[in-house]
Design a protein that fits this description.
The complex is a heterodimer of chains A (114) and B (114). Chain A is mainly β. Chain A has no helices and eleven strands. The chains are: A mainly beta (114), B mainly beta (114).
Chain lengths: 114, 114
């Protein structure tokens, strides 16, 4: 069941440059999208979210873009910092926003090179 | 900042034994969830819980699994007769459930079935 896909298992970016993580989904019923960051031996930490009525949401260094027609979202981190090195998960849920189950992608391991 | 806490961090159990994983959700949250991540695989939804009853459960959540909120603070996941394939990280999450509120995760319990 590949409803949420992150096709890049890993990504390396120089410190100070932009990191772009991508996510595709197939279920058109998804209405709310989130990005989580995960360090080893810790749980996923919420980063940023976007609902389907928007195409962009920004929070400090993090911006999420949503292209509903392409069923694609991306997370931009700029400037990238060494502490951003982690696994990033894209997740999606249905119309009840935070109340519904999350469907996760497989994750992208981001490494920031000093 | 309020957080979801899970105990124990690591549980080792013989196959066929019962195990209880414990979680203390964030205090003003109304929705509670269990997810699991088998090594090398994606985070998968198990069950959601609201108003003292199960809201939704996945195919994984069969008769061997149960959840309970025994008091005003704890939320537990019980596996009655563990199997080798139950070995995984189990994550508890909670959300306010109002509008676009994200789910917040604990650091997980690593369950190892021998």
């Amino acid at each position: 069941d590949q409803q949420v896909k992150q096709n890049s298992p890993s990504l390396s970016v120089q410190e100070g440059r932009i990191s772009i993580l991508n996510c595709d989904y197939t279920n058109s019923m998804f209405d709310y999208f989130l990005w989580y960051k995960k360090y080893p031996a810790e749980g996923p930490t919420f980063l940023i979210s976007i609902s389907s009525i928007k195409d962009k949401n920004e929070d400090g260094r993090f911006t999420v873009f949503l292209n509903k027609s392409a069923k694609h979202l991306s997370l931009h981190i700029v400037p990238s910092q060494p502490g951003d090195s982690a696994v990033y998960f894209c997740a999606a849920s249905g119309a009840n926003f935070g109340n519904e189950k999350l469907t996760f992608g497989t994750g992208t391991r981001l490494t920031i090179i000093p | 900042e309020p957080e979801v806490t899970q105990t124990p961090s690591h549980q080792v159990t013989q196959m066929g034994q019962e195990v209880i994983l414990r979680c203390v959700p964030i205090s003003n949250h109304l929705y509670f969830y269990w997810y699991r991540q088998i090594l090398g695989q994606k985070v998968e939804f198990l069950v959601s819980f609201y108003n003292n009853e199960i809201s939704e459960k996945s195919e994984i959540f069969d008769d061997q699994f149960s959840v309970e909120r025994p008091d005003g603070s704890n939320f537990t996941l019980k596996i009655r007769s563990t199997k080798l394939e139950d070995s995984a990280m189990y994550f508890c999450a909670s959300s306010e459930g109002q509008g676009s509120q994200p789910q917040h995760f604990g650091d997980g319990t690593r369950l190892s079935i021998l």
